[in-house]
Write a structure and sequence with these properties.
single chain, 520 residues, mainly beta, Jelly Rolls, Complement Module, domain 1, 4 domains, ten-stranded mixed β-sheet, 4 helices, rod-shaped, disordered N terminus, C1s2, sushi
């Protein structure tokens, strides 16, 4: 019978054999003949990086002794004893050959020692050794936010994988970026990498929009992958054209919206909302002095004398007879007083004038103000504010919004009842009158009256007059939009001041207006 003993002793040897082949065998001196007394022999079994050494003992016959102090086979790894073996196999013992001894590092050391007299001849041992590859030493990830190809659940020493970053990340080392790299599994279970890391892509500072600003939904001023921003307009004078105002930093390092892609939102002017609306409950007799913010769409035409209305941040609506044939237009907006035009007002520079093609003032007998409407495109957009904002165009098919007796407002610097030109902006409250009634009152005057006109005037002599031409005849929407206004008419002509006047019906020209503005 043989018995294994586990000790922490290290045997000093005098004769060492280096076993460098990947596999082979070694045995006690003279095997299969009896080994000699007082002999010592050592075998070193180194394994290359990524491998460990294994010993298997199919035959064993060494004299048994207490504590295996006389003759024995010792197996060590990294200076630590794995086993000390002696004895003879029999039916009641454990055959050392049933065990496989593995190195804890990449080398094993086997040492055989025989001492003293033997009770009988012992034939020693025969051992097989081999190198065994270390398996599953490297994890299935190399870098945070990366992908491996192939995507195996585990990797062995010297396995090589292609490393790429997840969508939305890029491979970075300092200022250098690469699409991918190859990593190698090392013996210690770590990956050998060139020092790159997967960093989220940066969309950089979000682009600005006109008349708006950017706010961060996620962390302020952080512009990396999955960051979220929201665009807002400069309220209350601008509003978003659509509700597609939230953008995220995409994996392509661009700011994108789920609905519009990279198309940025647009801030459009808010129309028809004066900062200081006229209170209709006040009783207004004849003309009244306008306050700042009552009519922010009002435009003063200095040459020729007249008026207009801002209908966007780059377009002015006026009468054709004001704009047609004028060698130049001198316009000022944002004022209620003509005393300090340059100080308080905004000078508007015309770029192009569009007179309705149907306007023929001298066709037929007398005066013909049919189609008396024109548009002026400005050289540049104006900055809107409390004293300067546009009036809304009427909705299509809005005849129901302009019934007879509907009250509207006309503002301007036209002649007063004293035949003087005021320095302060004036306004008057006027009711719409039946067009047939106005035709009857015009009998004897060579004028053309059409359904493209609105007739209005007060019983108390309220009316627009010379110098008001081209101005807007505005109306409030029904409740709950009581303080919102649209332009129903353009001041066109009248029989005489203080009676009733005619206004170009803007609703009839919406298609022409929209086409001109869209194409220019």
């Amino acid at each position: 019978m043989w018995l294994p003993f586990w000790l922490l002793a290290v045997i000093q040897t005098s004769y060492t054999i280096q076993l460098n082949k990947p596999s082979g065998e070694f045995s006690s001196p003279n095997h299969p003949l009896p080994y000699p007394a007082n002999s010592t022999e050592v075998w070193e079994i180194p394994a290359p990086e990524g491998y460990i050494a294994k010993i298997y003992i199919p035959y064993f016959d060494i004299e048994r002794s207490d504590g295996c102090q006389a003759s024995y086979l010792q197996i060590l790894s990294e200076g630590k004893e794995l086993a000390r073996l002696c004895g003879k196999w029999d039916d009641g013992g454990i055959d050392p050959g049933l065990h496989e001894y593995y190195s804890t590092g990449n080398a094993l050391r086997a040492s055989f020692t025989s001492q003293g007299q033997q009770t009988r001849p012992f034939t020693g041992f025969r051992a097989l050794y081999s190198h065994v590859g270390v398996r599953a030493t490297c994890p299935a990830h190399v870098l945070p936010h990366s992908l491996l190809e192939p995507a195996w659940p585990k990797f062995n020493f010297r396995d090589t994988v292609k490393v790429t970053c997840l969508r939305g990340y890029e491979m970075v080392e300092g200022l250098k970026t690469i699409p991918s790299f190859y990593a190698e599994c090392q013996q210690d279970g770590s990956w050998k990498t060139p020092g790159y890391s997967c960093q989220p892509v940066d969309c950089s500072i979000p682009p600005e929009i006109e008349n708006g600003r950017v706010t961060f939904v996620t962390q302020a001023d952080v512009t990396i992958y999955k960051s979220i921003i929201r665009y807002r307009c400069d309220e209350p004078y601008y509003q978003l054209q659509s509700n597609q105002n939230q953008f995220y930093c995409s994996s392509e390092a661009t700011w994108e919206n789920n609905g519009t892609g990279q198309v940025l939102p647009e801030c459009i002017p808010v129309c028809g909302k004066p900062s200081n609306p006229v209170i209709f409950r006040e009783r207004i007799i004849r003309g009244s002095v306008a306050k700042r913010g009552n009519f922010p769409w009002q435009v003063l035409f200095q040459r020729p004398r007249g008026a207009g209305a801002l209908i966007s941040d780059q377009w002015v609506l006026t009468a054709a007879h004001v704009a047609e044939g004028a060698p130049s237009l001198s316009m000022v907006a944002g004022i209620t007083s003509t005393k300090h035009l340059e100080r308080d007002g905004t000078r508007l520079q015309p770029a192009e004038v569009f007179v309705h093609p149907g306007y023929r003032p001298h066709s037929g007998q007398g005066h013909n103000y049919n189609h008396d409407i024109a548009l002026v495109r400005l050289r540049s957009k104006v900055r809107l504010g409390p004293d300067l904002s546009p009036i809304c165009l009427p909705p299509h098919n809005a005849q129901h919004l302009l019934p007879v007796n509907k009250i509207g407002l006309v503002s301007g610097w036209g002649l007063t009842e004293n035949d003087t030109l005021p320095t302060h902006l004036m306004f008057v409250r006027l009711p719409i009158r039946e067009l047939a009634e106005c035709r009857g009152l015009s009998t004897g005057h060579q004028v053309t009256i059409t359904d493209n006109m609105i007739c209005a005037g007060g019983q108390d002599g309220s009316d627009s007059c010379q110098g008001d031409s081209g101005g807007a005849f505005v109306f409030s929407y029904p409740k709950p939009r009581r303080d919102e206004f649209f332009v129903g008419g353009v001041v066109s002509w009248g029989i005489r001041c203080g009676t009733f006047g005619f206004y170009t019906k803007v609703m009839n020209y919406l298609d022409w207006i929209e086409e001109i503005m869209r194409n220019n």
